[in-house]
Amino acid sequence: MTAGLSRRAAICGIGQTEFSKESGRTELQLACECVKSALDDAGLSPADVDGLVTFTMDTTEEIDVVRNLGIGELSMFSRVPYGGGAAAGTVLQAAMAVATGVADVVVCYRAFNERSGMRFGGFASTLTSMPLFLSWYGPYGLLTPASWVALHARRYMETYGVTNADFAPIAVVDRKHAATNPDAWFHGRPITVEDHQASRWIVEPVLRLLDCCQESDGGVAIVVTSTERARDLRQVPAVIEAAAQGATFDGESMTSYYRDDLTGLQEMGAVARRLWSMSGLSPDDIQTAFLYDHFTPFVLMQLEELGFCGRGEAKEFATVENLSIGGRLPINTNGGLLGEAYIHGMNGITEGVRQVRGTSHNQVDAVEHVLVTSGTGVPTSGLILGRD
Amino acid sequence: MSGRLAPSMTPDTEFFWQGCRDHRLLIQRCTDCGALRHPPRPMCPSCTSLAWETVEASGRGTVLSFVMPRHPQFPGFDERYMVALVELEEGTRLVSNLVGTTPEEASIGMAVEVRFEQFDNDVVLPQFVPAGADADAAGGTAGTGADR
Ligand SMILES: [Zn+2]
User: A349 with A55: CB under 8 angstroms?
Assistant: First the structure.
């Protein structure tokens, strides 16, 4: 089926701006800066680019990237929906374009002022009318991404006897890895389980402050070309061993409350099946992973959907020891969305590339295959990156 | 009592909100195969029929999940208001508020029944109280600040 795409394309360049709480410049400028930085990293020029992919939520038009960077003619441009679920999906779109010859060099980008501009957690405070999608939730006060996730996650907690304290290791590991990543907002600022448990409730009894990712300003870009061409470029290619998107029946974007089973993340399960079958790999083959961590409970549920442990077993699997460098599955070695920055998951893909190259600030030994997931609770996507 | 932001509606969904104004909890039912569905939509996913009607729910259901959003605080809601996912005895689910009880007394699996609350900007919403609760004793909403 999709096995034909495996290893045909590679990530040959990555770029990013600084990650901050107030970039002081437009989202358009952030986008241009990160795209330029990624092309420089690849050793390519704007004239080499013939494809662009971003999120439907991104405010920067493809033609404005073209006009600013002096890119010539584009042969493909597409956008991926569902917020952070789009991240790896942009790379899938790029890989498909490259593998089919529709484009030669595709840049995926995401840039926003999510802290100093429009904040996802705060938009409801400024509403003067209820958007249609929110009409089944907003009138009752279910108005934030945290609350949408919490209502789902509480069913998981009830079913498997999970409490908020079981989420602490995710936050602690992310901040531990961020502490030694100079690019991370929380560089040098690790936390303890006690800090996690002392942080205030955001949505009781599911999410405390330290279960919720940051809000950040910044941009990240990723350059995709054929594996063949990537071999001749400046960087060690991060070969796309598998790329997948997934949506399943009766879902919504973050409020999928209508399926029989509320204890999993069906879309991630669908992505996982495709990733494993396309790559021919299994969880035992993965040395490190970036698991999308907008809210900690969904990291535990991802571990189960991806097959790193059985249903209901994530609270035993997800210890600080297991998830740290040197453990069974080091995760979010850049600090994740909680520790490094919230660039809608695109900064997880760049960290996956660095792990393959061997250039992470928190490098895992002998990396052959890295798993990267995108936003959960929404139609989503994932990647397995590996060495050529 | 303060207001709630009014839901937006389309021709596919307005029957539900009109039902609330009439204090009737309505569920969309496929005229051809009889399957119930919520939230409302134009086509039946079981048989692709576009023909539908509505049935009035008993109003009885079970709490599948509930949470207390604490931050940010929105005007018109108590400090620990409860939002619940309720499964109706007919089988469909909806999100609503759990009122007339406390976070300590409420539990997943508890039986609840619907009440309709008119907020002061004319928005009428279904709210759920513990089953069998006296209508007056179960008074108060998640947004009145009523002493419970
Ligand atoms: Zn039908």
Answer: no
B-chain CB neighbours of A249 within 8 Å are 45
User: What structural domains and CATH numbers belong to chain B?
Assistant: 9-56 (no CATH), 58-143 (2.40.50.840)
**Contact residues on chain B for A206, CB-CB shorter than 8 A:** 67
User: Of the candidates A41, A60, A63, A39, which has an alpha carbon nearest to the alpha carbon of residue A49?
Assistant: A39
What residue type is A135 in one-letter code?
A: S
Q: What is the CA angle A385-A17-A221, rounded to 5?
A: 35
B74 to A125: CB separation less than 8 angstroms, yes or no? yes
In one-letter notation, the amino acid at residue A62 is E
B46 Cα: distance to centroid of ligand 1 (angstroms): 5
Q: Which domains does chain A have, with CATH numbers?
A: 3-117+214-386 (3.40.47.10)
Contact between B50 and B43 under an 8 Å Cβ cutoff? The reply is yes
Per-residue pLDDT of A67-102, as tens digits, reads: 999 999 999 999 999 999 999 999 999 999 999 999
Which residue type does A277 have? S
pLDDT tens digits, one per residue of A234-269: 999 999 999 999 999 999 999 999 998 899 999 999
Task: Indicate yes or no: pTM above 0.80.
Answer: yes
Where in the sequence numbering do the catalytic residues of A fall? 292, 342
**pLDDT of B2 above 80:** no
First to last CA, chain B: 15
Contact between B43 and B49 under an 8 Å Cβ cutoff? The reply is yes
Which pair of structure tokens corresponds to residue B133?
A: 């609760």
Q: What are the residue ranges of helices labelled H in chain A?
A: 27-42, 62-69, 87-99, 145-160, 168-179, 193-198, 227-231, 266-279, 297-305, 314-317, 320-323, 336-339, 346-357
Contacts of B80 in chain A (CB under 8 A): 204
How many Å apart are CA A263 and CA A269, to the nearest integer? 12
Task: Identify which of A309, A341, A343 has the alpha carbon closest to the alpha carbon of residue A323.
Answer: A309
Whether the CB-CB separation of A186 and A227 falls below 8 Å is answered with no
Between chains, do A131 and B125 touch, taking CB under 8 Å as contact? Answer: no
Question: Which ipTM value was assigned to this complex?
Answer: 0.94
Q: Does A149 touch chain B (CB under 8 A)?
A: no
Angle between helices A346-357 and A87-99 (to 10 degrees): 60
Provide the 10 A C-beta neighbour count for residue A351.
27
